[in-house]
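does this look right to u?? MGD version
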Amino acid sequence: MEAKSKRVLTTCVYCGTGCNLYLHVEDGKIVGATPCDSHPVSQGKLCIKGWKIHEFIQRPDRLTKPLIKKDGKFVEASWDEALDLVATKFKETKEKYGPKALGCLSSAKCTNEENYVMQKFARAVLNTNSVDHCARLCHASTVAGLAASFGSGAMTNSIDELLDSKAILVTGSNTTEQHPIIGGKILRAKEKGAKLIVVDPREIQLAKFADVHLRQLSGTDVLWLNSFMYVIFEEGLEDKEFIKNHLDPEAFEEMKKVVTSDKYSPENTEKLTSIPAEDLRKAAIMFAKNKTGSLVYSMGITQHIQGTDNVKSCANLQMILGNMGVYGGGVNPLRGQQNVQGACDLGALSNVFSGYQKVVDPAAREKMAKAWGINVEDMDNKVGYTVVEMIHAAGDGKVKALYIMGENPMVSDPDINHVKECLEKPFLVVQDIFMTPTAELADVVLPAASFAEKDGAYTSTQRTVSKIRKAIEPVGDSKPDYWIIGQIAERMGYKGCTYSHPKEILDEINKLTPIYGGITWDRIDSDEFPFGIAWPCPNTSHGGTMFLHKDGNFSRGKGKCHPCEYVPPAEEPDEEYPFRLTTGRVAFHWHTGSMTRRSPTLDREVRSAYIELNPADANKLGVRKNQMVKVSSRRGEIFVRAEVSDIVPPGTVFIPWHFKEAPANKLTIAALDPVAKIPDLKVCAVKIEKVK
Ligand SMILES: Nc1nc2c(c(=O)[nH]1)N[C@H]1C(S)=C(S)[C@@H](COP(=O)(O)OP(=O)(O)OC[C@H]3O[C@@H](n4cnc5c(=O)[nH]c(N)nc54)[C@H](O)[C@@H]3O)O[C@H]1N2
Ligand SMILES: Nc1nc2c(c(=O)[nH]1)N[C@H]1C(S)=C(S)[C@@H](COP(=O)(O)OP(=O)(O)OC[C@H]3O[C@@H](n4cnc5c(=O)[nH]c(N)nc54)[C@H](O)[C@@H]3O)O[C@H]1N2
Ligand code: SF4
Ligand SMILES: [Mo]
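got this back:
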């Protein structure tokens, strides 16, 4: 008989830090969560979201039954009825309009195994490469930029190395709020004597502890990064040995020519970035002289039409300083969702199969077709639609059926007035644990089991694959995502997506994905690896990889610098829309709020949307703290309360985008980076009016 009370070790479902925790279960109810002392990263700590993780799981408004929309209203249905309907519609759409008319959004909230099955379903059953997920709104530019520079698009070093870095440059990462456990380690490194340089338009918590805080205008990162390198070359502080031995010489010279040109002198970039030249010089020299230095970044760097260039510039900087392939150094993009790294690794991207094997490579297609038992001619040989493109294609009538698992684009995508128009058109299936604004638009809603109700694995920001374990039975009639996908596939005549347990899926992943070759089900909670293994891990005698590009031996051979010229954001303030809006997060809430706003402890902390407004701007507008204001852009308007604060500089405003009743994404712009297709979520122009 099952014990009445137990605790189950698992991995946190929120951020990419990968903390492990125990879920405490009594009589089938999750009553609490506590940290795991022996976990190498979290070491007995959790942030507030981890401590309160149990609060959303068994909320009474969990989706418990499949729902089918009839005459504009949802009606409960049996699994058979819902799955038959979905399979029939998908089949009809494919027969009538071809595979291009179908698309899938996979999920960084789901497990590695579930993401693998979703992309297999898209490719083997629907025969489309239009399968993508929120990494596209997040670190798509990291994947593109770092792959071009180093040959691998992931965080290069491990989290705890920060404790031994001599200098840490943090830019576009509000680390203490968004990755609190990592933020704590940065502060510990600072206590131990590391220099801390923060480059962020807002005076975030870390900035208060920094040796230097540079406040650039949002969207001007290439300028200050080039200026850093300008100063480093001027002072002769580059690592000449590393450059000679490990970098592609032609690419290096080409890049050097650009960054040392006059327009990137600190004096010349000051006008556009608003960073005082003096301060920039000081910061650049400090970072260059204190070796080994680590560069940490997140959304402030990636979410721009110039995101890929921003990332490449970060890589350029760390390469010329010789901070690559060494302990305590590296280019360290902090991955956001707890399993966004895994969703990318397992091929939930429109251009790659699992392990970043390219869909346009005939040999890769041949390999997958053979393993999946399908005809290679049936496979899509072109890159599919990305997130924003797919939604726009639905609006244009090109995509006629859309399957969304564990994403909430009606709150998370840019320009949601337009997203709504687009999602109203196709046959829409949404698979979630709660009724979200996206699910409300669906024709069929499928109830998924949460992370506490299934087995599987997540891959953390430091590439460590670690397990989640079933603590309770699925709530209501909800089912694990992999089961649901398998059932739809079977009803469309394909049995290759049906598995009896995630272990079988991981076995298949091991065979087809070289970087995961040795990351087997049994190894990742063995006595040898109780908390998982970091890829690349090609075989079962390999112990995993702590940091990439060891000794400057880059995955691509020689490290490649890229010349990046500054390109201004797609939309900047003007007379009509005079403020620069940047959007982001707060410590207590998660994205679209579907989980954290159902957690009473977290909800109590921040209940509604607000706008950070500099006191000088508030004065000019005649707005006081907590007064309601109307914020509008060329695309929409929302009402929020004013939070008057010097966290933002004059002319810049910040809105957290968690709140569906006042969604910041009604204001944002869907302009895309040409390479990574990531939207510019960090800059657009707005006006602010007092509400009477
Ligand atoms: N509590 C909480 N934690 C989270 C999440 C959450 O929703 N809530 N989400 C997770 C996810 S998926 C992600 S991707 C990460 C995101 O983590 P972060 O990237 O740290 O979070 P953001 O608030 O989006 O923005 C980061 C910083 O970018 C700065 N910034 C704004 N514009 C610019 C610019 O033009 N250039 C630069 N360099 N900086 C700029 C902002 O002032 C802010 O400090 O957090 C993860 N962790
Ligand atoms: N303005 C603005 N917009 C942004 C950003 C920004 O900084 N500014 N950041 C962007 C970034 S970095 C990201 S990552 C995206 C995130 O965008 P989304 O991924 O759309 O946001 P989430 O709220 O994390 O959505 C995850 C959904 O999965 C559901 N879910 C949880 N667990 C499970 C499960 O086990 N199975 C299933 N099927 N569903 C589950 C949740 O209820 C939720 O509805 O937003 C982007 N949007
Ligand atoms: S830091 Fe991230 S992984 Fe750790 S408890 Fe908080 S949300 Fe969870
Ligand atoms: Mo993200």
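The radius of gyration is 24 Å. idk if thats expected tbh
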